[in-house]
Design goal:
Shape: globular
Bound molecules: calcium ion
Strand content: 35-45%
Number of helices: 3
Helix content: under 10%
Strand order of the largest sheet: 3-2-1-28
Radius of gyration: 20 Å
Distance between the termini: 19 Å
Largest sheet: 4 strands, antiparallel
Length: about 400
C-alpha cells in the first residue's frame, strides 16, 4: 500500500522531518489542474461523522447517513449517487440516482488506475460530494469540487510523499472536510484544515508508534472529528479528542487483538460507536461511546463467511448492521437500539456472487442495497423499509458491462 517509488524524490525529502518543512507544504496550492490525463481506482471513503452546513434533503436525522462528505450525493438531493470505474479504460463515471433510475450521467475522464486513489468529501460544505484525488505513485494530490455530474472547480494541492495516506474528517467543526495525514512507516501525523480547495492550516501532530492504526471518529459527539488509535498487536486502544489541530489524549480500555473494529452510531446520539468482530470465533459486540465511557453489549455470533455493512434500514437515525454471507448468499439485518438488536430482519437470500453496496437511493431516509451483478450486469436495488425488502431491477438501458466496478 505504501509504495516506495523513486518518482517522488524531492517530495520524499519534503515530508520526512521538521515542522518547518511541513510549513512549506502548507502554502495552499493553487494551480487549477484539468481532470484529464490520469486516473484513479478508489477505495471507499472512511466512515466518519461529519455534518453538513447545508440542511440535508434526506429525512434521516443522523448525519452519518446523510452527509455528502460520507455518502456520495453529487447534486445534494438527498439521494445516494453511484461512482463507477471502467477497469479497462480507467474511465470514471458518476451516475445521479433516483431510486433505480439513472437521472444523469457524467464522465470525469480516464485515469491510471494503478496509481490513483480517491476519497469522497465535502470540502466547501455545500452539501454536494467532492473528491480528494491522490496519486499514490507520485504523491500528487488534487481536490475536485463537484456540482452534479460537472466539475465545479479543481485545484492541485502540495504533493505528499507516497508513504503518507490521507483520511478525511472535520476537525474544527466548520463542516468543511479536513485531511488527516498518517505515515504508517514512520508514525508521523499531520492535519490540513481545509476551506474548499485551500489549505488554511497545516499542522504537524505528535508521532505515534508505528503499530498504531488511526480511524476517524467523533467519540464525544461535538461535531469535531477525533482519532481512534488501535494497536492491533497488543490490543491497546486510545483516542485523540481534537479541536482543530489541538489534541487531548485519553486511553481507552483494551480489546484483545483478535477483534477488529468498525464504526457506526448504534444509539443515534451522534457519538461514534464501535462494532467489534472476532473473525476467528465469529463473536460480535458493540461499544456505545460517550467520550471515553464505554457501554458494551454482546451480539450474536456469525461465522467468518459473513461480512457486515452499516446502514439505517428503519430510518430512526440509529445505524443498523447488514450481514451478507459471501458463500451461501444468505442475508440478514440487525436493527439496532444501542447495544442490543431490537429486531432481526430475515431478508431473502440471493446469488452469492452479487456484491452489495449500501445507500439511500430513493432518499426516504432508509438505507437501500444496490446489488451488482459483475458478470451479467443484471443489477438490482432492494428498497428497504425496516425488515421488508422490495427488489427492483436497474433498466436494461442502464446496464454496465463486466469491466465496470462500483463501491
Ligand atoms: Ca461540495
Ligand atoms: Ca452513538
Ligand atoms: Ca435504525
Ligand atoms: Ca431508501
Amino acid at each position: 500500500m505504501f509504495g516506495n517509488q523513486n518518482t517522488s524524490k524531492t517530495l520524499n525529502a519534503q515530508w520526512t522531518q521538521t515542522s518547518e518543512k511541513i510549513q512549506a507544504l502548507s502554502s495552499p496550492l493553487d494551480s487549477v489542474t484539468p481532470l484529464s490525463s490520469d486516473s484513479f481506482l478508489g477505495s471507499k471513503s472512511s466512515y466518519q461523522p461529519q455534518q453538513s452546513a447545508v440542511v440535508s434533503a434526506n429525512p434521516n436525522p443522523n448525519p452519518y447517513l446523510t452527509s455528502a462528505a460520507i455518502v456520495p450525493d453529487f447534486n445534494g438531493d438527498g439521494k445516494t449517487d453511484k461512482v463507477w470505474v471502467d477497469s479497462t479504460t480507467g474511465e470514471i463515471v458518476i451516475r445521479l440516482m433516483d431510486g433505480t433510475k439513472v437521472v444523469e450521467q457524467g464522465s470525469l475522464g480516464q485515469f491510471d488506475l494503478s496509481a490513483y486513489d480517491y476519497k469522497i468529501a465535502d470540502f466547501n460544505a455545500d452539501g454536494k460530494t467532492d473528491f480528494l484525488l491522490r496519486n499514490k505513485t507520485t504523491g500528487e494530490n488534487s481536490i475536485v469540487l463537484m456540482d452534479g455530474t460537472r466539475v465545479g472547480s479543481a485545484a492541485a494541492l502540495s504533493s505528499v510523499d507516497p508513504a503518507w495516506s490521507p483520511q478525511i474528517g472535520d476537525f474544527n467543526g466548520d463542516r468543511k472536510t479536513d485531511i488527516f495525514w498518517h505515515n504508517a512507516t514512520t508514525g508521523e501525523n499531520a492535519i490540513w484544515e481545509m476551506d474548499g480547495t485551500t489549505v488554511v492550516n497545516a499542522t504537524v501532530l505528535d508521532t505515534t508508534d508505528t503499530a498504531l492504526t488511526p480511524t476517524i471518529v467523533d467519540f464525544d459527539g461535538n461535531g469535531k472529528s477525533d482519532i481512534f488509535w488501535r494497536n492491533a498487536t497488543t490490543g491497546d486502544n486510545s483516542a485523540w479528542f481534537m479541536d482543530g489541530a489541538q489534541k487531548t489524549e485519553f486511553a481507552l480500555q483494551s480489546q484483545d487483538a483478535a477483534w477488529t473494529a468498525s464504526v457506526g452510531d448504534f444509539n443515534g446520539d451522534l457519538s461514534t460507536d464501535i462494532l467489534w468482530r472476532n473473525a476467528q470465533t465469529g463473536e460480535n459486540k458493540v461499544w456505545t461511546m460517550r467520550g471515553i465511557l464505554v457501554t458494551e453489549g454482546a451480539l450474536g455470533t456469525l461465522d467468518s463467511s459473513w461480512t457486515s455493512k452499516i446502514g439505517d434500514f428503519n430510518g430512526d437515525g440509529k445505524t443498523d448492521i447488514f450481514w451478507h454471507n459471501g458463500t451461501t448468499g444468505a442475508n440478514t439485518a440487525w436493527l439496532m437500539d444501542g447495544t442490543t438488536v431490537a429486531t432481526e430482519a430475515f431478508l431473502p437470500a440471493n446469488n452469492a456472487a452479487l456484491t452489495p453496496s449500501l445507500g439511500d437511493f430513493n432518499g426516504d431516509g432508509k438505507t437501500d442495497i444496490y446489488w451488482r451483478d459483475q458478470t451479467a450486469g443484471s443489477d438490482n436495488i432492494w428498497t428497504i423499509d425496516g425488515t421488508t425488502a422490495v427488489e427492483n431491477p436497474i433498466s436494461d438501458a442502464d446496464k454496465l458491462g463486466p469491466q465496470w466496478y462500483t463501491f
